[in-house]
UniProtKB/TrEMBL annotation:
Protein name: Urease accessory protein UreG
GO MF annotation list: GTP binding; GTPase activity; nickel cation binding
Keyword Chaperone set for record: yes
Function: Facilitates the functional incorporation of the urease nickel metallocenter. This process requires GTP hydrolysis, probably effectuated by UreG.
Subcellular locations according to the entry: Cytoplasm
Pfam families: cobW
Lineage, highest ranks first: Archaea, Methanobacteriati, Methanobacteriota, Stenosarchaea group, Halobacteria
Length: 207
C-alpha cells in the first residue's frame, strides 16, 4: 500500500558515499522476491549508470531488466530526491506503465554528506545508511539524513574493531538523536537485513 497517490510503495535509501546503499539493495531485493513481491529499483547517480548497470546484472533472472533504472541527477544527489523528485517520479510511472502490479520500488540516492532527506512525495518510507568505518561520531552530528529518516541503518558492523569504532556508543547516540528506530547491519554477510525488512514491511507494505 502506498501513501503517495501512486499505487505502489516507494522506499528511499540514502546515505554518504560508500556507506553500503547498493550492497543493502542487493541484499533486500532477493529477500523481497522470496516473499513474492514484484520489485523495481532506481539508482540515482550524479553522472553515471554504473550502479544501475551493476544491479541489472546482479538481479538477472530475479528482476526484469526494465525494472532496474539509473537516474542521472547531474547535480547534488539531494536535488533529485528532495528538491525536485520529478525525474524519479517519472521513472516510477514508467515502471508502472509496463508493470501495473508492481508492489515496491526501492529508490537509492547518490552518496551525500549527511544532509539528504527524501521528499515525501517520492518515498513513503526512507532509510539512511551510515557506515561504522566513517567514524563513530556520525550519529552524534545530528545530520538531517540521520535524524529524519524513518529507519537509520548502521552498516559495516564487522569493521568496528578494525577502525577502532565503539559500536555501543554509536547505538547510544543513534537512540539519543532519533525518535525513530535504528538497526545494525553487515551487508557482507546479510546480518541485520531481516530487521530492515521487518521495518519496511511495517512501514509500507502492511501499513
Ligand atoms: N566490510 C564491509 N564492507 C561492506 C559492507 N557493506 C558494504 N561494504 C563494502 O563497501 C563498499 C561500498 O559499498 P556500496 O554498497 O557500493 O556503497 P554505496 O553507499 O552504494 O556507495 P555509493 O553508491 O558510491 O555512494 C563496497 O566495497 C562494499 O563491498 C559491510 O557491511 N561490511
Amino acid at each position: 500500500m502506498s501513501l503517495t497517490h501512486r499505487d505502489v510503495a516507494t522506499v528511499g535509501i540514502g546515505g554518504p558515499v560508500g556507506s553500503g546503499k547498493t550492497s543493502l539493495v542487493s541484499e533486500l531485493v532477493p529477500e523481497l522476491r522470496e516473499r513474492g513481491l514484484d520489485v523495481g529499483v532506481i539508482a540515482n547517480d550524479i553522472l553515471t549508470q554504473e550502479d544501475a548497470d551493476a544491479l541489472r546484472e546482479r538481479f538477472a533472472g530475479l528482476v526484469p531488466k526494465d525494472l532496474v533504472a539509473g537516474v542521472e541527477t547531474g547535480a547534488c544527489p539531494h536535488t533529485g530526491i528532495r528538491e525536485d523528485p520529478s525525474m524519479n517520479l517519472a521513472q516510477v510511472d514508467d515502471f508502472l506503465a509496463e508493470h501495473p502490479d508492481l508492489d515496491l520500488v526501492l529508490v537509492e540516492s547518490g552518496g551525500d554528506n549527511l544532509a539528504a532527506t527524501f521528499n515525501p512525495e517520492l518515498a513513503d518510507y526512507s532509510l539512511y545508511v551510515i557506515s561504522v568505518a566513517e567514524g563513530e561520531d556520525i550519529p552524534r552530528k545530528r545530520g538531517p539524513g540521520v535524524v529524519e529518516c524513518d529507519l537509520l541503518v548502521i552498516n559495516k558492523t564487522d569493521l568496528a574493531p578494525h577502525v577502532g569504532a565503539d559500536l555501543d556508543a554509536m547505538e547510544r547516540d543513534a537512540e539519543a538523536v532519533r525518535d525513530g528506530p535504528f538497526v545494525t547491519t553487515n551487508c557482507k554477510t546479510g546480518e541485520g537485513v531481516e530487521d530492515v525488512l521487518e521495518h519496511i514491511h511495517k512501514g509500507v507494505l502492511f501499513a
